[in-house]
Design goal:
The structure is a homodimer.
Chain A (H helix, E strand, L loop, with lengths): L5 H9 L17 E2 L11 H16 L4 H4 L5 H12 L7 E4 L2 H15 L5 E4 L5 H13 L5 E4 L18 E7 L11 H10 L3 E5 L11 H4 L3 E4 L13 E5 L43 H15 L3 H23 L5 E2 L11 E5 L3 H10 L2 E2 L1 E3 L3 E5 L7 H16 L16
Parallel strand pairs in A: 1-11, 3-4, 3-5, 5-6, 6-7
Antiparallel strand pairs in A: 2-8, 7-8, 9-10, 10-13, 12-13
Helix pairs in contact in A: 1-12, 2-9, 4-9, 5-6, 10-12
Chain lengths: ~425, ~425
């Protein structure tokens, strides 16, 4: 293969049909931001929208904004927009709470739907909060359930997994693994779980907004997702929750706060769950954070997810080629799948000095992140990542290695948040 | 008693030591805002602070803000500030999630601490979400617990309540009732519950920020509170949760998300609760809403709660006198306590045409709210309510009655949010 040049990457940018989308983000041209899988950047439309929400809606219209600006419906109106991105019906998604809280809700509801099955099947390398939430609920329910870890890829092949026995109530998996980047075949796993009588809960935090997700066609029972990564909804943006239509009446989640009541403003004495997805709501939603999320969702909805995925694959292809050509000799190896059909929108490189190398990169404004013990993680978010960004990231990484820059003491210091 | 005049109220404003605090709020001079117990108004400092958070912290510093701007500690740093307002130690309060979610956490933890007691004692006229959360948890745990309603004032007198039998695990009460405005004697109830072996959970949504709350001196076990009412933290601002120091190690809440882990960024496989109040956290906090809350908390912290309470009592005293002098003849009666020592920072008037009367008032920019079936609710928030506001509210209310303005069809229309 002919080595890639900066010219090649500029040409790829010129023919990129998503090129103009980058202009919708506040991203300094001197930054290469490859950490949108941790915190998406600021859409240019967000400050003005929030300014209006703060000064006009809160400041001037005050309490009346719950009606006048329809704050009260935001969890469902944003949910209905987001539904299009993940193959759900507009009545199957609500935006609310955090990913963790939403996982807790649907896991509790799902276990109730399978009262005779006591196993929760998941993967050991889940984003930890997923496992923590399972453990917290199990403990609360008296530790009658069993948490079983498996290789989730074994669930992709019909009949090939002994894990899916008739004790399995719920299969809870990440659609894309947050470290390895491995993308699971959601339809295949869901269908195998279904045949085994188990329900599925999909954590799409590292897939929704970065690649096509089709919860409906996959037959997924429940899903949750994140607002602050690929949806660019702002730091700690509310998450979202999906409950397939057929489970909405039967699956009652335990956090039965007033926003999930059939008639919240009638102030009835007893809880009556709302019909439909609204029964996933609990308390009063954080409106400012919801409005920032809506801007991010609107932006993502402009672009066909297929185009996003195609560009993501292309960005990763050139990054992998450049890694092979220029980084392998510095001790980097590829830890994420090379096959684009099973890889999310990120690449992980392994290096024994990964932590200080990433700090040195960040000092040069090439921003990825580090995951213990030795993973440098790079997210390629096609809405704002250019092909020349990939070139620059590799150039800087080469410099950091050649000059041994990473070996400065400041880059070894541990930060609170990595 | 000599009837009050506009002059009298102007004089009260002139000698009001909190008078200048109103200048710190964006409140149009033509609005009389008596609904801060539902949504506090916008502090003037909030837009600039949020602009910085949005453009600089999120927009420019991106993911690094978790460290650089200490986003990661916001739940505890805001909690420590807020602790001063409610008589708690700086290590006993965390800001996070919603009131409803926080109630769920502490109720689940409290029930675990009293495994042999199966009764939850509360009041029927709680803000409904409190009862809904109890019901949701009871159902989830298999309906082994009993929900018992009582007159909470009966718990204020030692030995006078047969409600506090040895089946009572938890007493969950509102410090100030959201409709009646009745303020309970927290110390007395807590002490009586303690003697009966029960734990207390206080919902301070309608007291904290409006009057002195002393969780520590009262011996309260758990408490929750609201960010968007008297703390002026913005619509749907995160709530807060208090766990008395002695329960922090023993009481494990079930929503064990990664922010409550001992080492969240070590990405360990198994959940290990953080020591101290941080184990009340669950998912990633909504930073923009948190930052708005911090401005509100900072503002409230400037002013001694005793001054706030004194002014609140004075505002209510003149409103009650004017009600007697000018409104009683129009069919209004006082539904909140007349004794200031047992009344929160609100007054409720009862009128059979309460709903359209309140809509007519709002049309004249005198903003209170209505609670079914016949309560007009007026919050007197001493940080920004002037004595002349009280005069104007009564004037407008008189006009609305004299001219039968409330009987226009538009004022009878039901709104989604009341």
């Amino acid at each position: 293969m002919v080595p890639l040049t900066a010219d090649d990457l500029e040409k790829l940018d010129q023919s990129d049909r998503l090129r103009s989308v980058r202009d919708q983000f506040e991203l300094s041209p001197d930054v290469v931001y490859l950490d949108g899988n941790s915190l998406g950047p600021l859409p240019k439309a967000t400050p003005a929208r929030l300014e209006k929400a703060i000064r006009q809606e809160w400041g001037k219209d005050l309490i009346n904004s719950w009606n006048k600006h329809n704050w009260v419906s935001l969890p469902l109106t944003i949910g209905a927009k987001l539904a299009k991105l993940v193959g759900a019906g507009p009545d199957e998604v609500a935006c609310c709470d955090s990913v963790s809280v939403n996982l807790y809700k649907v896991l509790s509801a799902a276990l109730e739907l399978r009262p005779d099955r006591m196993t929760i099947l998941t993967e050991e390398s889940n984003f930890p909060t997923d496992t923590y939430i399972i453990q917290g609920l199990m403990r609360q329910l008296g530790n009658h359930h069993t948490l079983r870890f498996c290789d989730p890829t074994s669930l992709e092949h019909p009949g090939s997994s002994h894990q899916l026995d008739d004790s399995v109530a719920v299969v809870l998996l990440s659609h894309v693994n947050y470290v390895s980047g491995r993308l699971l075949d959601m339809a295949a796993v869901t269908s195998n779980a279904y045949r085994a009588g188990a329900l599925t809960i999909w954590d799409t935090a590292h897939s929704a907004g970065a690649l096509p997700v089709d919860l409906g066609a996959s037959g997924a029972d429940f899903a949750v997702g994140c607002g602050y990564k690929y949806l660019n909804g702002g730091p700690g943006a509310p998450g979202w929750v999906y409950v397939a239509r057929q489970h909405q009446a039967g699956a009652q989640q335990p956090l039965s706060g007033w926003f999930g009541h059939a008639a919240p403003f009638d102030f009835e004495r007893n809880f009556r769950p709302a019909e439909g997805i609204r029964n996933q709501l609990c308390g009063t939603p954080p409106i400012l954070s919801m409005i920032a999320l809506e801007v991010g969702v609107d932006l993502a909805c402009q672009v066909p997810m297929k185009h996003v995925r195609d560009k993501s694959n292309a960005l990763i292809r050139v990054f992998l080629q450049l890694t092979d050509e220029r980084l392998a000799s510095h001790g980097f190896s590829v830890a994420s799948p090379r096959d684009p059909s099973i890889c999310g929108s990120q690449v992980c490189l392994r290096h024994s000095n990964g932590y200080p190398i990433m700090q040195a990169l960040v000092a040069h404004k090439v921003i990825g992140d580090f995951r213990s013990p030795d993973i440098l993680r790079f997210g390629f978010c096609p809405l704002y990542t250019c092909f020349v960004d990939v070139w620059r990231a590799v150039e800087v990484l080469c410099d950091v290695m050649v000059n041994k820059e990473w070996d400065q003491p400041e880059f070894h210091k541990k930060k609170a948040v990595t």
